[in-house]
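Reviewers asked in the last cycle whether our approach scales beyond single polypeptides. To address this, we selected a multi-component target totalling 334 residues and predicted its structure end to end. The input consisted of the following lines:
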Amino acid sequence: MITASRRSLKLLSIGIGLLFTAAVYYTMHYNPRWDWSAPGVGKLPRDIVAQFMDQAYVKGQGGTAQQSYFAKDAGDNAPAAEDRRDGAPVPHEVREVIAQGMTVTVIHRIGPARGSPEIDVIDVFKIKDGRIARRDRYPTRFAQ
Amino acid sequence: MGNDSNSAAASARAGADRVEIALDAATLWRGVVTLLRLFLGAWMLNSGYSYWAQEFGWPPAFPQPFGTLPASNQMLVTMVEIGLFDFVKTVEVIGGVCLIFGVFVPAATLLLLPVSAIVFYNAVFLNLRTDRLFSPTYMGVSCLYINVIVALAYIRYYLPMLSLRSTPGGLRDLARLPEMFRQQDNNHHR
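The resulting structure, written as structure tokens, was:
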């Protein structure tokens, strides 16, 4: 038989609980599978794409955005796109964004900029681990 | 149970504030359940905190996972987008704190059960992690197992709720709510 006060047992259990909480936090936070440097870590795919497009188009920092938002082994069937280079801001009008799971589709009209003509495109982004893992661009022509 | 009656008698002898703990299987069971309760609480608190931490710009324990396979991606992303995760993560924080501090434990355990069930469904049926179905270190499945074990350990608190026949009470029953703060857990070691 062991004799103890209820209060001590209560405090002991709370202490163990807080210790468990700290241990779970530490173990999970420093788990190497998280890439904390990814700009979109923990964010919604549509938000990651919106942030990339804001930097690449509105701010004209496509080169910088591409380096931080695209994964190193990311696939892109439009590697020469203006949104992957730094320069003057590129005007664009987003017609629609369709997001499902980790796939974000942006239907937008890219205005004439940096010597390139106006084009209408459907960009399909695949997001993984807070970065763009793939972008497939489908040129099209809007009726209006 | 013989061990339980011994423990109860010992507890009565020890007085209201002190308790005598018999070194028997019943005590071992309670110890294991307590550790499972605390670990489940710690996990839930971290999970809920991590979501809200990112919302407020604080350092999370881990980034919100959005699943591995498409069906899991869809469910988790949609739950966040429509705001259901705000509810889920708040439940995790409240439930986790209750389990750690040992208050409203039966209610908190029940509150967390649907969360654990969805975590399990997401892991096994959407991410197809059947290879880790019995892996104790994989919280995708273990949180449901732990939740069920803890719930079973507190089943005596659920028995009044499981009445086969029941009749509705009056609104004046609401006046009895403060009783939940007055009731002592006199079954501490019974």
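The beta strands of chain B are 18-21. We regard this as preliminary and will revisit it once experimental data from Aim 1 are available.
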